[in-house]
Each structure stands twice: as structure tokens, then as C-alpha cells.
Amino acid sequence: MLEALRSTLLVAASSLPVVFDIDEDLVAVGSPEDLAQVVHGLVSNASKYAPGSPIDVSAARDADHILVFVEDRGPGVARGKRDLIFERGWRASLEETEGYGLGLSIARDLITRAGGDLWVTPRPGGGAKFVVSLPRWQGLMSIDGSVTPGATTDLSYNASERTNTATLQEEERREGIKRLGGAT
């Protein structure tokens, strides 16, 4: 799934300062094309609000989800507007940015339809950090790339790096997800 995303980002990186770190072994439920469209839209938005600044795109997994992060170094999103920005037609500034205020609403709809979620938090050091969360595929992928439904294994999971994932509340997930191997 993330292979389509990597291809999209390679095209974006040719014209934008995009830095990406994505493990191709991550497999999520949903359409690869929809995920690529959503992340491309998030990267495009980041370039509007932080022109010329690096945009970081990375992915990680937790026990049940694949998480894709798009981080910019722009002005960020005020706490009171973090849900508002996903409403159809809402724009941060009518004078300063192009568009119709539909992109984030459509992005959230696409991700929600796949059983996931999309939200924004502050980026440490300034800017915005958009998080796409999709259910992790609970199958086994063979060497040739075919997937065996129902087989469950996670070859990269290290229990010592995660603590009590099953008890995380939704708000905790939204405010600070810890990535395997380090902080977000």
C-alpha cells in the first residue's frame, strides 16, 4: 500500500522540499490511491503555509494501525481550530491562500471511509503535524507480495518498545502517538 504513496512523494519531492521516511513493509486497510491522494493533498497544503520549508513525511505502526505523519514548519493550527479545519469550505485565510477549503474535508472523508482517522496536532518546534491513521492489515504478506488473509504476524514488533497499547484512549492517540523506536 505504501509503495503507491512513495511514488507520489517522489514526484512531489522533485518540486517541493519533501523529506520522507517510509517503510514499504507497512500494510494498511484501504485504497493505496486514496492514501496517496490524501498525503499529496497534505503535502500541498503544507507547502502553501510554509513555502520553501522542509516537509517531513514518515510512517510507523502501532498494535492496530498504520500511521502516516506529514509535518511542516508553518504557523501551525490553533487548538480551537483543529477540528474546524476539516469542515467543508473552511479556510485559514481567505486572502492569503488559494483553494476552496475542500481538501482537508475530502481527505478526512476518504480516510474515514477506510475505517481510519485524520487529525492535526502541533509539531514540536513549531508547525503542524497531520496524522493519518488506518487499520493495519492483519494478514501475512509473502515474499512475492501476495497477502494471506487471517494470518497474523508482525515481524517488526518489539514488545519492550511499546507499553499497554491496548489501553490508549482516543484523545491520547490524538495528542501524542509514540512511534516504534522513538518519539514522534
Automatic annotation (TrEMBL):
InterPro entries reported in the protein's UniProt record: HATPase_C_sf, HATPase_dom, His_kinase_dom, Sig_transdc_His_kin-like_C
Source species taxonomy: unclassified sequences, metagenomes, ecological metagenomes
Domain Histidine kinase residue range list: 1-138
Record Gene3D superfamilies: Histidine kinase-like ATPase, C-terminal domain
Pfam family, one: HATPase_c
Protein name: Unannotated protein
GO molecular function: phosphorelay sensor kinase activity
Region annotation (Disordered) ranges: 163-184
Record bears the keyword Phosphoprotein: yes
Keywords tagged on the record: Phosphoprotein
Keyword NAD: no
